[in-house]
């Protein structure tokens, strides 16, 4: 066997550090990008944000149409009473002893965001060196406060606390929840009827009562949706038969060179300061180019989406078309992963809603003709069929598939209906059935 040296030419793609960082920057959300720029500007005195003449606009999360607010967000959106502070305020009327106050404070601090106690009472008693029964007594006082259900140690206890606070007689409901909770959770109505002697209509009534209770009472003190404001990354408006695109200045910020250092950069010195500024200038130039590239890529991707989903922007959600990342990538002559990074975590304000950009990408579903329908449209039809069904005789997945074909020409299997139904958090027909 002879050993010999051979030269061979190969072509390999190497990602430079700058290109890698630019790709990463493309997928940054607005908050991540601004945080990154702030971080770099702290290290690099040459990086300076451009002042925008456009005041920051906030858009209401729950409104269908654009709602512009003042530059300053309402104070209520930031200064809100927390669950723990609300409980401590209510505790003033309980007239607790000093030892009870210690236990109460420990219990409150052990609550999770749902309002549930996360520590075992035996552990709390041990930690505070108090008799085993005292945490239980203080917990009962905590559970008497608002919101109803706070301080529960399980979902079952949370529901029972709320049932006992209702003004009407809930004896049957309390019996079912306390003794047959697992069967109730599974909605095994027929087995429950045999074990409890209650009719299916009575069990249905209990289900309706429980459905109106809160399984996570602590969430009432989270940021209320009506006070949550989001600035979308892009805004698409439809007026006079034309679509216009606007990019948010916060999501796509511009930077400029700090003018104070321009004279130092112009000097041809070879000292340490000049070397430092030269390095920082390269970093500034790279960041400026990366931000411009991010803006350009996002604009191109969004304009292509506007072309492909023109029907949606003019006619509404029912007219959304099937679209894949690859189709947009091929149309723009870029890689599919670039489109994926561009839409990741980005939001758009449309004439109808505030939504994520990924909403415009959906799989193709074959129809009875030669065309295709988007999975979003199929799900919308599915929701309407289930909303209009006879609740005493809910539609099975097989029947839903047949109706989609008959009414809309959509050809999908029973399994696909079940998959879409699960994605929409819609229960099976056996569980949706009502007995009254």
From TrEMBL:
<comment type="similarity">
    <text>Belongs to the sigma-54 factor family.</text>
</comment>
<keyword id="KW-0808">Transferase</keyword>
<dbReference type="InterPro" id="IPR007046">
    <property type="entry name" value="RNA_pol_sigma_54_core-bd"/>
</dbReference>
<feature type="domain" description="HTH cro/C1-type">
    <location>
        <begin position="323"/>
        <end position="368"/>
    </location>
</feature>
<dbReference type="InterPro" id="IPR001387">
    <property type="entry name" value="Cro/C1-type_HTH"/>
</dbReference>
<dbReference type="InterPro" id="IPR038709">
    <property type="entry name" value="RpoN_core-bd_sf"/>
</dbReference>
<dbReference type="Pfam" id="PF00309">
    <property type="entry name" value="Sigma54_AID"/>
</dbReference>
<protein>
    <submittedName>
        <fullName>RNA polymerase factor sigma-54</fullName>
    </submittedName>
</protein>
<dbReference type="Pfam" id="PF04552">
    <property type="entry name" value="Sigma54_DBD"/>
</dbReference>
<dbReference type="Pfam" id="PF04963">
    <property type="entry name" value="Sigma54_CBD"/>
</dbReference>
<keyword id="KW-0805">Transcription regulation</keyword>
<keyword id="KW-0240">DNA-directed RNA polymerase</keyword>
<keyword id="KW-0548">Nucleotidyltransferase</keyword>
<keyword id="KW-0804">Transcription</keyword>
<keyword id="KW-0731">Sigma factor</keyword>
<keyword id="KW-0238">DNA-binding</keyword>
<dbReference type="InterPro" id="IPR000394">
    <property type="entry name" value="RNA_pol_sigma_54"/>
</dbReference>
<dbReference type="InterPro" id="IPR007634">
    <property type="entry name" value="RNA_pol_sigma_54_DNA-bd"/>
</dbReference>
């Amino acid at each position: 066997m002879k050993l010999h040296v051979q030269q061979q030419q190969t072509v390999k793609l190497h990602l430079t550090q700058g290109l890698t960082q630019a790709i990463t920057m493309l997928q940054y959300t607005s908050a991540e990008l601004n945080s990154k720029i702030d971080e770099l500007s702290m290290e690099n005195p040459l990086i300076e944000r451009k002042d925008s003449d456009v005041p920051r606009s906030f858009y209401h999360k729950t409104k269908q149409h654009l709602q512009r607010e003042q530059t300053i967000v309402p104070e209520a959106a930031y200064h809100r009473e927390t669950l723990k502070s609300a409980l401590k305020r209510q505790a003033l009327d309980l007239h607790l002893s000093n030892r009870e106050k210690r236990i109460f404070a420990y219990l409150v601090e052990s609550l999770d965001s749902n309002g549930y106690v996360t520590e075992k009472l035996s552990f709390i008693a041990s930690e505070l060196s108090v008799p085993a029964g005292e945490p239980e007594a203080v917990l009962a006082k905590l559970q008497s406060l608002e919101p109803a259900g706070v301080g529960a140690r399980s979902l079952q206890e949370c529901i029972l606390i709320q049932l006992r606070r209702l003004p009407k007689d809930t004896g049957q409901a309390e019996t079912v929840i306390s003794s047959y909770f697992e069967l109730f959770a599974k909605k095994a109505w027929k087995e429950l009827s045999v074990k409890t002697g209650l009719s299916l209509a009575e069990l249905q009534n209990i289900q309706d009562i429980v459905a109106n209770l809160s399984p996570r009472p602590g969430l009432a003190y989270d940021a209320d949706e009506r006070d949550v404001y989001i600035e979308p990354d892009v805004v698409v408006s439809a007026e006079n038969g034309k679509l216009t695109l606007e990019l948010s200045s916060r999501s796509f910020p511009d930077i400029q060179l700090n003018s104070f250092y321009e004279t130092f950069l112009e000097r041809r010195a070879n000292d340490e300061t000049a070397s430092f500024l030269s390095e920082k200038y390269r970093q500034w130039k790279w960041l400026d180019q990366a931000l411009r590239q991010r803006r350009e890529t996002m604009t191109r991707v969004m304009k292509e989406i506007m072309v492909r989903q023109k029907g949606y922007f003019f006619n509404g959600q029912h007219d959304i078309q099937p679209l894949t990342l690859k189709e947009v990538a091929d149309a723009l002559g870029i890689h599919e992963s670039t489109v994926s990074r561009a839409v990741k975590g980005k939001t758009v304000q449309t004439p109808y809603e505030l939504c994520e950009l990924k909403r415009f990408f959906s799989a193709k579903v074959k129809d009875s003709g030669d065309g295709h329908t988007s999975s979003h449209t199929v799900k919308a039809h599915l929701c309407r069929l289930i909303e209009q069904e006879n609740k005493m005789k809910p539609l099975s997945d097989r029947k839903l598939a047949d109706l989609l074909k008959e009414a809309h020409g959509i050809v999908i299997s029973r399994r696909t209906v079940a998959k879409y139904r699960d994605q929409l958090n819609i229960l099976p027909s056996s569980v949706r059935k009502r007995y009254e």
